[in-house]
Amino acid sequence: MTHDEEKLLRRAIALAAEARTGGDPPFGSLLATADGTILAEERNSTLTDRDITAHPELKLARWAARELDPAAAATTTMYTSCQPCGMCAGAIARSGLGRVVYALSVEQLHALKPPGRASAEPPAEGPALYAEARVPLEGYW
């Protein structure tokens, strides 16, 4: 990691601190061009917005999908205070961002949480009704 990339990652950490000061969970992210120009910044706002999807990574992925053409998105880097969750990782992949650089891993994050605070996956069942479910998809791609 270069000195300039470290500065961008430190800015993402500062955004996380700002989110916490504002009453939200401490997560922050920014999106930068290949030369390090910051295009957009976001903080977690899940509590103040009363929106469980208001993660900074998801907000930036949505912004990039709206505002950048695919070629430009592919050259960007998201710098984020923590490794994106599954929801955000899916949005990042669909938005076509070039890469993600994070400060804390999911494992490191969970180690910082008190016992019993980890998110549990709900039980899931499927696949089911393949013949019916495929009908709306046929010919889409």
Strand tally is 4
How big is the Rg? Answer: 17 Å
Query: Residue-averaged pLDDT, rounded?
Result: 95
Q: Give the helices and strands as they follow along the chain.
A: HEEHHEHEHH
Outline: globular
Q: Considering DSSP H and I runs of 4 or more, what fraction of the residues is helical?
A: 25-40%
Which strands sit side by side, in order, in the main sheet?
2-1-3-4
Report, as a whole number of angstroms, the end-to-end distance.
Answer: 38 Å
Main beta-sheet strand count, sense and barrel state: 4 strands, mixed
Q: Which spans of ≥5 residues are poorly predicted at pLDDT below 50?
A: none
What's the helix count? Answer: 6
Structural class: alpha+beta
Task: Classify the beta-strand content into a percent band.
Answer: 15-25%
Task: Walk me through what this model shows.
Pfam families: dCMP_cyt_deam_1. Residues 3-120 form the CMP/dCMP-type deaminase domain. InterPro entries: CMP_dCMP_dom, Cytidine_deaminase-like. This is Nucleoside deaminase. This protein is an alpha+beta fold. A four-stranded mixed beta sheet has the order 2-1-3-4, with helices on both faces. The mean pLDDT is 95. The protein starts with a helix and ends in an 8-residue tail after the last helix. 40% of the residues lie in helices and 16% in strands. Helix 2 (56-67) runs parallel beside helix 4 (86-95). The protein is globular and about 55 Å long.
